[in-house]
Structures are given as C-alpha cells and as structure tokens.
Amino acid sequence: MRKHIFNAGPCKLSDPxxxxxxxxVMELNxxxxxxxxxSHRSKDFQAVMDEAVAGLKEVLSIPDNYHVLFLGGGASTQxxxxxxxxxxTKAAYVNTGAWSKKAIAEAKIFxxxxxxASSEDKDFTYYPKGFTIPSDVDYxxxxxxxxxRGTEIFEDLDSPVPLIAxxxxxxxxxPVDVSKYAMIYGGAQKNxxxxxxxxxxxxxDMLEKVNTEIALPSMFKYNIHIDNGSMYNTPPCVNIFAINxxxxxxxxxxxxxxxxxxxxxxxxxxxxxxxxxxxxxxTVEEGSRxxxxxxxxxxxxxxxxxxxxxxxxxxxxxxxxxxxxxxxGFRASTYNASTIDDIQALVKCMQDFxxxx
Length: 357
Ligand SMILES: *Cc1c(COP(=O)(O)O)cnc(C)c1O
Prior knowledge:
CATH topology of the largest domain: Aspartate Aminotransferase, domain 2
Order of helices and strands: EHHEHEHEEEEEEEHHHEEHEEH
Number of helices: 9
Largest sheet: 7 strands, mixed
Bound molecules: pyridoxal-5'-phosphate
Number of strands: 14
Shape: globular
Number of domains: 2
Strand content: 15-25%
Radius of gyration: 21 Å
Distance between the termini: 28 Å
Oligomer: single chain
Helix content: 25-40%
C-alpha cells in the first residue's frame, strides 16, 4: 500500500511519473533496451532530453533568450559553480537559512560576499522583505523557498544586478516571471524528479559575464554544457526521463497555475489545523509561510508526546514528518504530488491524537 509521503527530499512523485519510469526501466519505446541501458547518444534518449528541455520551457513560460540545462551533482554543485563562473569581486546574498549559508560558504571560496539581508535574528522564522540590492555587486543570490525552515518568498524581485535564485523546493509550484532572473537553479528531487540532477535556467547574456581570470575545468563551465545540450558527459538519463514525466503530468493538470492553486489549498488546510490544534503551533510568521514545507512544533509543555505521536502517525501510514534536527518537532513537505487525501490523513491524525491524549 502506498503511504502518505511527506518527505522533504527526495520527494513524493506522481503516479504517472512512477508508472512510466518503471515501464521505461523495463523497456524504452520498444527499443529492446532499458532507459538504464540505452545510449545517451541514441535517438530515443535525445528525444527524452529534448522533450524535458522543451517541457520546462513551456511550463514556466521561459523566454527564448534562456537556456535550460540538466546537470549532475545536484544543487550543491551549483552553489560552487555559479560563484566560480560569476563572482569576480563581490556578490550579494540573502541569508534565509541552512541552504543559503551553504551557498554563501561556497561563494566565499571565490570572492567577497555581502549578506544584504538575513532572518537569522529571529531564527529564520520569516522571509526578509524590503531590502535594497546594491548595484556594485556581480550578482545577488536568494533561496526562494527554505526547505528546512519553511519560509518562502512569493514575489519575483526587481534587481539592478543579475538575480540568481535557488528554487530547489518551490520550482513548479507557482508561475514565475523568469525574465526577472539571470539564473534559476535547483536540485530536482524536491518537486521535479529524483535526486542527483540539477536544473539550471540561465539567461544568454550571463555567458558574457563569466569570469575569464580563472581557469575553469570543463565540467564547471556553463557554456560547455550549453554547447553540448547537457550531454558534455553522460547525463543522469533515468532522472531526466522522470523529470520529463513530471513535466508532462504538470502540464496535463493545467500547468503551474493549477499547481499553485493546489499548493494553496493543501497548505491552507494544514496551517489551519496547526493553528487550531491546541497540541501544536506553527514556527513561521504569517506572510512568509511556505506552501511546500510546513514545520510545526509542540505547544508548550507537550514535547514529551513526540515519540507517541510519531508512532501514532506511522501506524496511519504517514511518513516523513519528523522535523529537521535544527527545528525539531515536525515538518510536512507538501510538494506538487501531495494530494488533498494525504493532507487530510495528516490532519485527521492530528485531530484523533488530540482526542486520544
Ligand atoms: C535540498 C536543497 C539543496 C541541495 O540539493 P542537492 O541536490 O542535495 O545538492 C539546495 N538548496 C535547497 C533550497 C534545497 O532544498
């Protein structure tokens, strides 16, 4: 029986994605070969790559002057790679939690970092607003959704310098005005596919801004990957297949507009229960609450119920709600493939537990 999966990442994926990927693992398009075996240079795989690139462009209405890449190494490699390519003297970063901090640490290897806004003063429980982006930096970097803390920015910022966003955990959950960004990237495993591959959406003019003062190995050059259609080396073929299936599924449900409606519906139901249930309380300020990652902790004095509730939830086929160790309590990750049924199972679990204790 399929469980109610609230894992932060790798995430729950849609049934059509799982079914079609499973079929392709047995045999890709009557080719007599598995997607695990077929050459990445074959027509069959080229079609998968082309469809995935075109699919992401269509779903996010990506303008023509952008390239789409699918690269190995996850979002963490991008933390370093983007700095390697674009940080010449100084970059601005917004610090909204653990992932921002990791991005900052990697950037510091290559140049100066100015943290222009931070929510660390209140333990990352809100998303900073109204900060000024300086015009004397090579780029500004934000983490649009903070997977661990559950804060999210819902607007596409205006910036005087190239705006780069880690959208690992909210990509495909709302329409994005891509034209405001120089680069959008993320690990696919939060809302797009399996782990081990990053998506990179990069504006053409950024390639002219690449730092030529330092020698970069080929694998860390965006233009090499663009020139080779994400196949400079052997790409993560099955992961890209699954991404393509997710993109087709998103399109079939009405695109990112429909995903946003569902995300609002799901998260509103869960936040309402967290706010209502006297056993629990939310950790994030209203206005910054993520629709994708929803942390909640015990009301004061109820902490000793932790193990009992975890067992209660497990017995109801609910998995993945244990909070990140830095926040404690619980976190329900409610990505695109989460259903209202999953959410209602969790809400019912919280309500029944309230009656039981
Ligand atoms: C998970 C995550 C990452 C890291 O992704 P990897 O693919 O594991 O490197 C980076 N940023 C955010 C916001 C994430 O949620």
